[in-house]
Amino acid sequence: MTPSPESDQQFNKWYDDEHIPMLSVVPGWLSAKRFVLCASIYQSTGTTTAARRAPKYLAVHELENVQVFDKSEYRAATSTPWRTEVMESLKEKQRSVMEYVGQLDEFADATQK
InterPro entries, per this entry (predicted)? Predict the structure, then answer.
């Protein structure tokens, strides 16, 4: 997600004070981690010339399964007036749902040394 510069502080306040606390009580919501962009390289292998920018913030949420999105607690967490205001101030947003496929053995061994 990339908030506009003038809404960045409000975005972070909403995320920390409302969004994460509300998601933390959703059954099946296991964890959440937030990251801020430090550097980005974009290389296109196609014929498109459109420039892409990485989002300023990335959140990685771990869920039991995708049915978590059907829970009433999730709908409540994503239906607040404050969230609506914040979402309208975003310049860019994207949500992807992925499945964990495993850790590479060479990295697993390096962390044990």
Answer: Dimeric_a/b-barrel
Rounded to an integer, what distance in angstroms lies between the CA atom of residue 7 and that of residue 63? 28
Check residue 27 and report its DSSP letter.
T
Maximum C-alpha span of the chain: 49
And the tokens for 2?
């990339």
Number of domains in the chain: 1
Residue with tokens 């989002």: 55
pLDDT 10s digits, 79-94:
999 999 999 999 888 8
Element (H, E) at 81: helix 81-88
Among residues 85, 83, 87, 63, the alpha carbon closest in space to that of 75 is found at: 83
Displacement of CA 99 from its chain's centroid (Å):
15
The reported pLDDT for the residue numbered 113 is 55
Q: Residue 4 corresponds to which tokens in the numbers above? A: 């506009």
